[in-house]
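Thread amino acids onto this structure.
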């Protein structure tokens, strides 16, 4: 059953805005590729957690799986395979270049969200 968790929805919106600002203004080699990918994993987690009623651990595993899947699509050059590289929005969403560093950044992002939620559970 779908139940909207508005606190997670607000976090999702804040992360989306942050990602957009990073994409527009960050032209470096840390914030955009590393921090941006870590935040992207958090974004996926919070979007899922907004609508899906499963444990935070399962949500984290699902979010990380989605991130890895999208990175895997980059590995096989999925946009080129289907002649879709001309669509800018798809290049933004899927990306164009596989990177192990991206996989690490997604993992760090999900570990971060789990640490935040586990800490919250312990102190409650």
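Threaded sequence (124 positions):
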């Amino acid at each position: 059953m779908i139940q909207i968790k508005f606190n997670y929805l607000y976090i999702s919106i804040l992360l989306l805005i942050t990602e957009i600002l990073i994409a527009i203004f960050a032209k470096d080699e840390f914030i955009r590729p590393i921090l941006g990918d870590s935040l992207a994993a958090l974004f996926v987690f919070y979007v899922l957690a907004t609508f899906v009623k499963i444990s935070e651990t399962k949500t984290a595993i699902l979010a990380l799986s989605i991130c890895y899947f999208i990175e895997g699509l980059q590995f096989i050059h999925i946009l080129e395979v289907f002649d879709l590289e001309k669509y800018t929005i798809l290049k933004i969403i899927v990306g164009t270049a596989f990177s192990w560093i991206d996989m690490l950044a997604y993992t760090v992002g999900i570990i971060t969200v789990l640490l935040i939620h586990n800490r919250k559970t312990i102190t409650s």
